[in-house]
Design a protein that fits this description.
single chain; 269 residues; alpha/beta; Carbamate kinase; 8-stranded mixed sheet; globular; binds glutamic acid
Length: 269
Amino acid sequence: MDGILNRSDISKAKRIVIKIGTTSLTYDNGHVNLNRIGHLTRVICDLMNRGKEVVLVTSGAIGIGVDKLKLPGRPSTLSGKQAVAAVGQLMLMNIYERFFSEFSQTVAQVLLTKNVTDGEESRQNAINTFNELLSMGVVPIVNENDTVAVDEIKYGDNDYLSFIVAQLTKADLLVILSDIDGYYDKNPQEYDDAILLHTITDLSEKIEKNAGGSGTALGTGGMLTKVHASRLAAASGIWAVIANGEKPEIVYDILDGKEIGTVFVPEKK
Ligand code: GLU
């Protein structure tokens, strides 16, 4: 099909990276949304049962740490954020471990920093570890190692990290679950007539122009980081989809090739 792949090809994806952000993992009051995490983990276990391999990229360390420590909001200092992330990451993994163990699914924690994935040898080590984990049927749960990452050497946001992970693992599909249905031609919060873009085939930088830049109180990414990560993934041959993670079962619809969310069609595979 002249290099343009068919949306139904997504169903063939074997290795899938799913990214979920802090806003999807917490309620507006800052507490953990256990119901959402329960649904997400169940979907992932079911995908594993179908014979897929799944890597989960999760945010939430800082958000959950803020809640656990009963702080009024994210600390403003770097060391404050690093300390809160150390508390929150443990709790986040504890929650995942509990839910995944309900289905006897073994999980692993993988904390990455940009200097690890930028360095040739350490990058290869990370790739080897992912491959080992996946071959053992383990679900790697990835986050940035916020406790040691400093501003100069940060990925910046977990959307970008999810692209890096999709690249390292040579994933077939990257699903970025968000609190919005996908990428619109203009900001749907400002314009009633905003149209959801279902399929993106132009992977040039200019498609980022309508994405804005804002994040939320507890997360860091906005639509811009999602579009950027998806565009880069598709340019490296990986299907990428931005979809609403309110109901994590949406991943089934994506795999069924339904016209849902925004799909970035890979250039080559
Ligand atoms: N790594 C951060 C956390 O776990 C999230 C970064 C992001 O939201 O993009 O809190």
